Amino acid sequence: MKKLENKVALVTGGNSGIGEATVYALAEEGANIGIAYIVNKERAEQICENICKKNGVKAIAIKVDITIPDEVKEMVDTMLKEFGKIDVLVNNAGILIQSKLVDTTLEDWNRILATNLTGFFLCTKAVLPSMLSRKEGRIINIGSVLGQIGDSELVAYSASKGGVIAFTKALAREVVQDGILVNCVAPATTETGIIAGVSLEWRKAKESIIPLGRFSKPEEIAPSVVFLASSDSDVYVGQTLCPNTGESML
Fold this sequence. Notes:
CATH class: Alpha Beta
Number of domains: 1
Strand content: 5-15%
CATH architecture: 3-Layer(aba) Sandwich
Helix content: 40-55%
Largest sheet: 7 strands, parallel
CATH topology: Rossmann fold
CATH superfamily: NAD(P)-binding Rossmann-like Domain
Radius of gyration: 17 Å
Shape: globular
């Protein structure tokens, strides 16, 4: 039997990068999937078709802006109507804007925090009641090594991901007695579209200090999410797994 047979997983930002790799990995273990996306409907629907054909699971794509409460509620209602439950929530959707703090506008600061932190809060708050009623569930937040060590020209992003790690720990304590396990995955720099806008100078400097000597790939991060979604991680509570190429050693 596959590790996630008959489970239902909702993945935000599930049509690209780490989210897409996670969707494929969860489906490979038998999970039915909800792909939440904000742009590129065609991509999201193609991924659904791919995993349905390959893995024999059910998948749907849902357009949502995770910073808008009504849209988040509608997303969760759609999932519950379609599948009857949500066993796993993967809070993954995020944005990155590179700039020195003195050049960071309040608008950009608010955009980053709204997506990378408040969006996680809204999605979690919307999913929790159904998990609480069933006394089971897994919430997996995608953080970042920068939430642990920070980085210049990425102060807002680092702050948002540090918040995700603290959010994970606090919520884990709050709901563990209700049968819900909350954990975090904090990758290092990963080859996804989110880093497309960083400067070549930043990229070279970052690569030069990574012990492994390269950035990670999305498919190298997804197994940590699958682990936390499965019964293999039954004693993991409020933990942050760090598939980070050695960029931070805790």
